[in-house]
């Protein structure tokens, strides 16, 4: 893994990997999209995020166990391929790549909109161009610079969430300056805890899956992690606790402070409303900046993940060799620049879909996250049949019960999303999957193989 100057450099520490996963998972979906999730499920949104968190824990435990058994793995592909075969590895790699380039496109447009809060006369295309340049520079110069930037951006997001929780608890239980504490009465006072029934809970899982998507990015850091067999399990344990805490607790506070059916009536984020209630000056400007930072952080993580998938595909001969070209700092700069092009694709999509851009992309991304979780879980189940696990190293203690639980839940959520999601989102996603499937059979056709052999001579 350290041969010459042609391999990625192991510079990512546990703190970098943990914050990278948090950067991908805690983005605009929490700060801005929280009202949409509440509108779908009401106070039961707490249960939806808790269930999602438990499923995520079981999936990531399986990922950690496979990473420990295969310390030379570079990404998901190397973990899955020996267990599920070439097609599954190919499909997983490309849907993961697709997920992040679409996410970069969606969040690039959203980031430009938040900047226009202060500079309304600046055109969107120019802001997206500036964002693309900034994100590219962070990723091109060195892995360490990228990791440190992501670490501090994620740290700021986490600090804001912690403050939100503290201030929210004060508003719930402490009277001050004419404010009367609300307690937990709002959880059941407006048509009960499950106002939209089981259907609302299932529909909310679309947002939950999208929100938690990105945590599995830990599986893309394998080639650049120091001591992956030790670092990955530690990062996964810490990341799970933080993600559940940073989603479940804020949602509990929001639906307790406000009637759930009033949250979506305000154009402001619930986070802004809470900071305004405490009396913090310029709360709207502060939260606009924090949300913008959260989007930058998510885009930063997404560009890292998508470029590493493209790099390993190039190393394996699946795409042209130019994408595996490294800079002196051992950064796959061609892959990084190529993935940045997704930002410009996002601008084109926005011209067609308009205000619905983010909603269309979120539906497709939720399907993709589910498929990624499915392949990881299935691979973990099959991995035990390929050989005994070393009980002296990290392993899933309650196997196979936790893994089967996660797999059954993933399948159930898939059908729930299938029947509650726009048919357009489903058709677009399945068309993309069909293209990926056909590309696999093309790459493995006799004609293509002979062409590859000729080019390698």
TrEMBL record:
<feature type="transmembrane region" description="Helical">
    <location>
        <begin position="240"/>
        <end position="260"/>
    </location>
</feature>
<feature type="transmembrane region" description="Helical">
    <location>
        <begin position="198"/>
        <end position="219"/>
    </location>
</feature>
<feature type="transmembrane region" description="Helical">
    <location>
        <begin position="125"/>
        <end position="146"/>
    </location>
</feature>
<feature type="domain" description="Amino acid permease/ SLC12A">
    <location>
        <begin position="16"/>
        <end position="446"/>
    </location>
</feature>
<dbReference type="GO" id="GO:0005886">
    <property type="term" value="C:plasma membrane"/>
</dbReference>
<keyword id="KW-0812">Transmembrane</keyword>
<feature type="transmembrane region" description="Helical">
    <location>
        <begin position="286"/>
        <end position="311"/>
    </location>
</feature>
<keyword id="KW-1133">Transmembrane helix</keyword>
<feature type="transmembrane region" description="Helical">
    <location>
        <begin position="358"/>
        <end position="378"/>
    </location>
</feature>
<dbReference type="GO" id="GO:0006865">
    <property type="term" value="P:amino acid transport"/>
</dbReference>
<feature type="transmembrane region" description="Helical">
    <location>
        <begin position="331"/>
        <end position="352"/>
    </location>
</feature>
<feature type="transmembrane region" description="Helical">
    <location>
        <begin position="46"/>
        <end position="68"/>
    </location>
</feature>
<feature type="transmembrane region" description="Helical">
    <location>
        <begin position="398"/>
        <end position="417"/>
    </location>
</feature>
<keyword id="KW-0472">Membrane</keyword>
<dbReference type="Pfam" id="PF00324">
    <property type="entry name" value="AA_permease"/>
</dbReference>
<dbReference type="InterPro" id="IPR004840">
    <property type="entry name" value="Amino_acid_permease_CS"/>
</dbReference>
<feature type="transmembrane region" description="Helical">
    <location>
        <begin position="100"/>
        <end position="119"/>
    </location>
</feature>
<feature type="transmembrane region" description="Helical">
    <location>
        <begin position="423"/>
        <end position="442"/>
    </location>
</feature>
<keyword id="KW-0029">Amino-acid transport</keyword>
<dbReference type="GO" id="GO:0055085">
    <property type="term" value="P:transmembrane transport"/>
</dbReference>
<dbReference type="InterPro" id="IPR004841">
    <property type="entry name" value="AA-permease/SLC12A_dom"/>
</dbReference>
<feature type="transmembrane region" description="Helical">
    <location>
        <begin position="158"/>
        <end position="178"/>
    </location>
</feature>
<protein>
    <submittedName>
        <fullName>Amino acid permease</fullName>
    </submittedName>
</protein>
<keyword id="KW-0813">Transport</keyword>
């Amino acid at each position: 893994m350290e041969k010459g100057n042609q391999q990625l450099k192991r510079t990512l520490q546990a703190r970098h990997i943990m914050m990278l996963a948090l950067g991908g998972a805690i983005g605009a979906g929490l700060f801005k999209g929280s009202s949409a999730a509440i509108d779908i499920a009401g106070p039961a949104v707490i249960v939806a995020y808790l269930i999602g968190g438990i499923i995520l824990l079981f999936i990531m435990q399986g990922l950690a166990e496979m990473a420990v058994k295969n310390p030379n793995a570079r990404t998901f592909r190397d973990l899955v391929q020996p267990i599920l075969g070439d097609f599954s590895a190919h499909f997983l790699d490309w849907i993961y790549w697709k997920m992040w380039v679409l996410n970069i496109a969606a969040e690039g447009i959203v980031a430009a909109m938040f900047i226009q809060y202060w500079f309304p006369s600046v055109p969107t295309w120019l802001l997206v161009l500036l964002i693309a340049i900034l994100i590219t520079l962070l990723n091109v110069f060195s892995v360490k610079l990228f990791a440190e930037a992501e670490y501090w951006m994620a740290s700021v997001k986490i600090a804001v969430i912690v403050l939100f929780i503290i201030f929210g608890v004060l508003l719930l239980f402490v009277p001050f300056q004419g404010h009367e504490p609300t307690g937990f009465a709002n959880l059941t006072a407006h048509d009960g805890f499950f106002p939209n029934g089981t259907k609302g809970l299932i529909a909310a899982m679309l947002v939950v899956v999208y929100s938690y998507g990105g945590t599995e990015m830990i599986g893309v850091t394998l080639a650049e992690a120091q001591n992956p067999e030790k670092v990955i399990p530690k990062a996964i344990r810490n990341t799970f606790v933080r993600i559940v805490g940073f989603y479940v607790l804020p949602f509990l506070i929001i639906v307790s402070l406000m009637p759930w059916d009033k949250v979506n009536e305000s154009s402001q984020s619930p986070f802004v409303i809470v900071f305004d209630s405490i009396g913090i000056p310029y709360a709207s400007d502060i939260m606009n900046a924090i949300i913008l930072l959260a989007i930058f952080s998510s885009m930063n993580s997404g560009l890292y993940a998508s470029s590493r998938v493209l790099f390993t595909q190039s190393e394996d001969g699946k795409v042209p060799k130019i994408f595996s070209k490294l800079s002196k700092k051992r950064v796959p700069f061609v892959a990084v620049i190529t993935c940045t092009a997704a930002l410009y694709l996002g601008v084109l999509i926005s011209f067609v879909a308009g205000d619905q851009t983010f909603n269309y992309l979120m539906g497709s991304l939720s399907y993709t996250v589910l498929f990624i979780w499915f392949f990881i879980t299935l691979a973990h189940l099959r991995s035990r049949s390929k050989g005994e696990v070393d009980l002296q190293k990290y392993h899933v203690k309650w196997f196979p019960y936790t893994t089967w639980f996660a797999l059954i839940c993933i399948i159930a959520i898939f059908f729930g999303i299938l029947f509650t999601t726009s048919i357009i989102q489903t058709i677009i996603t399945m068309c993309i999957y069909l293209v990926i499937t056909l590309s696999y059979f093309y790459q493995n056709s006799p004609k293509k193989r002979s062409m590859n052999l000729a080019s390698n001579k």
